[in-house]
Amino acid sequence: MILTVLKITLICIAVLAVLYMLAIMPRMFNRPDTGLFKKVYFAHRGLHDNASDAPENSMAAFRKAVEEGLGMELDVQVTKDGVPVIFHDFKLDRICKAEGKITGCTYDELQKYKLCDSDERIPKLSELLEMVDGKVPLIVEIKAETADVSCCRVIDRMLRAYKGAYCIESFNPMVLWWFRRNHRDVVRGQLSSNFRREGEYWNILYFLMTHLLFNFLTKPDFIAYNHKFSEEPGRRICRRLYRHPAAAWTIRSQQDLEALKGEYDVFIFDSFLPAKIKQV
Hints:
Strand order of the largest sheet: 1-2-4-5-6-7-8-9
Largest sheet: 8 strands, parallel, barrel
CATH class: Alpha Beta
Order of helices and strands: HEHEEHHHEHEHEHHHEHEHE
């Protein structure tokens, strides 16, 4: 009897282990080329300083990144009247000291607000694309607060017309699922972290996201993980077993950047200017 119970337990554990490995498996076949994104470092929200005249996600911060030959990571949402704009938070209070959300305002209404007391205002995605014009690669994070990812259609339409190198990423697995169904050729990345240890969110949804258990649905081309939690098993399996491209966010010192080489391929940095990548 005891041996039978033990055998059944071991079988169940083996089955669960196989199901877990299948659930977190990223895209394994017909992967798009991600080599270009490994050749530069990416300035988080542009080369910014929120106490300066080039605050985060501002055109001034993006111009500074281009001048340094740096890639850039930026956050895109869609306004109430369907305009893709660059802004990180869902709410306006931290950056604009105003009430309301990006999705609840028209583009013209948003232009009343300044970014971090500078003269910069919330830019359109189209302005950024025109300015960069393919000079450096872009990581476009699509911000979607709910399962409604209809914003992806208008963002994708604009990005398809852009001739420079870009990839998309999102915390929201439904965004990646939308691109898997509608634009399979674009490089797509799953953003994640250990949300419980960050102390911000925790429920069954964030448990699944922490452990990359939506990969079976989204089939990402890279995993962008909070580098503070690099030891998370799902991330390590994707990196070491599946040999999957990995992006680290957000690195805030040259020392951390150097320590993470080998564990990651793509590096998103903030608050310092890293030494240039040596081109081979």
